[in-house]
């Protein structure tokens, strides 16, 4: 019961953090317009987003190691405090360079998702771990639905109001963690623990030192996360180009996807992973996602998007299963290191994916704008032999 309580509190904290992220994303360009000429807004907006991802690539593994050494709770508190400080700085920023300082602080201290995942790995039984990891995705999905809606309402009061709201949400999460979240890290004996050199905690090198077979699983994780950037980067542009969507239709499609994705995460992953096993659930998710991309490439009418949305949402069942598979192959007091490395790889995909996919789309769309979706399907095909080899090493 105590373990479930720790997981639920951690998820509530994550949900508050996700709503805060969703609050500011729609209004950040408007804030920049108050400081910059219109023609410079897009460039600085992209740099601010990339700066956060770059800091996470570097610092997420270090924060993960710190949570293994000193506990999940202090690192989570520092992360929430850093986010609250960032949003406060952005709300009060009189000039552009102050915004950059806020993003640097948030990127350096941003470990909420990794620490929550580590807490769940500490506190959940192995047979239920995929289900709890799926709840992380559901919380982010709900946050990305509620956050922009609330942010748009607050923006009607002031451009700065959503940033104040996000700061208050993270401050509330900080208080919640202080009062109710107990430490979940359990130290292992020295004989059980693998020693990971400090400079080897980054990217694929960190996975290689953590356990056998984790390198291959990490490559699959990175490819899947990279492919996930495809709809994030191109959904709006593709919908406008292929189907002549207006802003309302785009918003409705994104809301439909967010709700469907959250439902699959909340209710499908647990039963599937227990009935099929985690590796089959992962393969099912990859096949559903690949099929969705292929159908999207050839879709001719807007109504065809509905089965695509269902397939893409179903594809989300794979990632919690993969994350659970990896966490079971790491001892308890290195869960933070693992989740930090995975967070770093996720942000690496978020940094290079949108740039690469949008450039490819711009080069190929004049002939046919479905090529980029076929590439996503082909990348999934690449995952299967890597996964098969990694599972052989593990078994």
UniProtKB/TrEMBL annotation:
The keyword Iron does not apply. It is a multi-pass membrane protein. The chain crosses the membrane at residues 44-63, 75-98, 104-121, 133-157, 163-181, 214-238, 250-269, 304-322, 343-364, 370-391. It comes from the Bacteria. Keywords: Membrane, Transmembrane, Transmembrane helix. One of its GO terms (molecular function) is transmembrane transporter activity. Pfam families: MFS_1. It is found in: Cell membrane; Membrane. GO terms for cellular component: membrane. Belongs to the major facilitator superfamily. TCR/Tet family. Resistance to tetracycline by an active tetracycline efflux. This is an energy-dependent process that decreases the accumulation of the antibiotic in whole cells. This protein functions as a metal-tetracycline/H(+) antiporter. This is Tet(A)/Tet(B)/Tet(C) family tetracycline efflux MFS transporter. The lineage of its organism: Bacteria, Pseudomonadati, Pseudomonadota, Betaproteobacteria, Burkholderiales.
């Amino acid at each position: 019961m105590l373990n479930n309580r720790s997981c639920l509190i951690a998820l509530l904290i994550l949900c508050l953090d996700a709503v805060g992220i969703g609050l500011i994303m729609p209004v950040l360009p408007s804030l920049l317009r108050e400081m910059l000429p219109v023609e410079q807004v897009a460039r600085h907006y992209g740099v601010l987003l990339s700066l956060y991802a770059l800091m996470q690539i570097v610092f997420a593994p270090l924060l993960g190691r710190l949570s293994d050494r000193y506990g999940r709770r202090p690192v989570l508190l520092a992360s929430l405090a850093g986010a609250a400080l960032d949003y406060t700085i952005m709300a009060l920023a009189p000039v552009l360079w102050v915004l950059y300082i806020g993003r640097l602080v948030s990127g350096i201290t941003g470990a909420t998702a990794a620490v929550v995942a580590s807490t769940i790995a500490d506190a959940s039984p192995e047979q239920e771990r995929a289900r709890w990891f799926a709840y992380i995705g559901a919380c982010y999905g709900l946050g990305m639905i509620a956050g922009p809606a609330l942010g748009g309402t607050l923006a009607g009061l002031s451009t700065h109001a959503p940033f104040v709201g996000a700061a208050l949400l993270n401050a509330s999460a900080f208080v919640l963690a202080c009062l109710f979240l107990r430490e979940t890290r359990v130290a292992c004996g020295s004989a059980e623990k693998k020693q990971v050199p400090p400079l080897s905690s980054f990217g694929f090198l960190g996975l290689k030192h953590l356990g056998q077979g984790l390198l291959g699983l990490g490559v699959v994780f990175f490819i899947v996360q990279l492919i996930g950037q495809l709809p994030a980067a191109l959904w709006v542009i593709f919908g406008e180009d292929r189907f002549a969507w207006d802003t309302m239709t785009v918003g409705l499609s994104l809301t439909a996807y967010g709700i469907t994705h959250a439902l699959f995460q909340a209710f499908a992953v647990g039963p599937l992973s227990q009935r099929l096993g985690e590796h089959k659930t992962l393969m099912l998710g990859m096949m559903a996602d690949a099929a969705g991309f292929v159908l999207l490439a050839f879709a001719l009418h807007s109504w065809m998007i509905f089965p695509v949305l269902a397939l893409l949402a179903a594809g989300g069942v794979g990632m919690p299963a993969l994350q659970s598979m990896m966490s079971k192959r790491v001892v308890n007091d290195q869960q933070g290191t693992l989740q930090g490395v995975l967070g770093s790889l996720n942000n690496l995909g978020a940094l290079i994916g949108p740039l690469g996919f949008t450039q490819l789309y711009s080069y190929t769309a004049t002939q046919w704008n479905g090529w980029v979706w076929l590439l996503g399907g082909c990348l999934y095909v690449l995952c299967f032999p890597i996964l098969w080899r990694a599972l052989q090493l593990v078994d």
